[in-house]
Write a structure and sequence with these properties.
Blueprint: E1 8-13, H1 16-27, H2 41-46, E2 56-59, E3 68-73, E4 86-88, H3 96-112, E5 116-121, E6 130-134, E7 140-143
Parallel strand pairs: 1-3, 4-7
Antiparallel strand pairs: 2-3, 5-6, 6-7
């Protein structure tokens, strides 16, 4: 019998806290409490060596169901398409115009947070509508 393992999704990025807070808003996630003995993550960050300050940030599903999201600073910028991306399930169970309306409303909410809409794929005879997006640092994701 195989063992079920939990996993986290890790993003390489330039500004971990900014990207983490964006994804908190997208997914309804929260920033976990700071380590014991620290009033805030900023207080904790100040205890780190200068080159490690602001180097990472995390957020998690407040219900404990979804995976933890971890964001780590890397020196290089994004240069090619993601090989893995998140599908944010906005239109589950919806079809046609009702689905497209739900996706469009979420697209509008997320663009106000700094996301960019790449393309809107309207339903055809094989697939339902979806919207290709980019987060605040250009990482691709879909509204599905």
């Amino acid at each position: 019998m195989s063992t079920i393992r939990q996993f986290q999704v890790t993003f390489d990025c330039a500004d971990p806290e900014r990207v983490a807070r964006f994804w908190c808003e997208v997914l309804g996630y929260v920033v976990p409490p700071p380590p014991e003995g620290h009033a805030s993550w900023t207080d904790y960050d100040r205890t780190l060596p200068a080159d490690r300050q602001g180097a990472s940030f995390a957020c998690s599903d407040p219900t404990g169901v979804g995976p933890r999201m971890y964001f780590q600073r890397v020196p290089e910028g994004k240069v090619v398409k993601n090989r893995v991306h998140l599908d944010v399930r906005v239109g589950t169970g919806l079809v046609g115009e009702e689905r497209l309306a739900a996706l469009t409303a979420e697209r509008d909410r997320l663009t106000a947070l700094g996301a960019v809409c790449d393309r809107v794929l309207v339903a055809d005879e094989f697939n339902e509508s979806c919207i290709g997006m980019r987060d605040v640092e250009g990482n691709e994701f879909c509204l599905d």
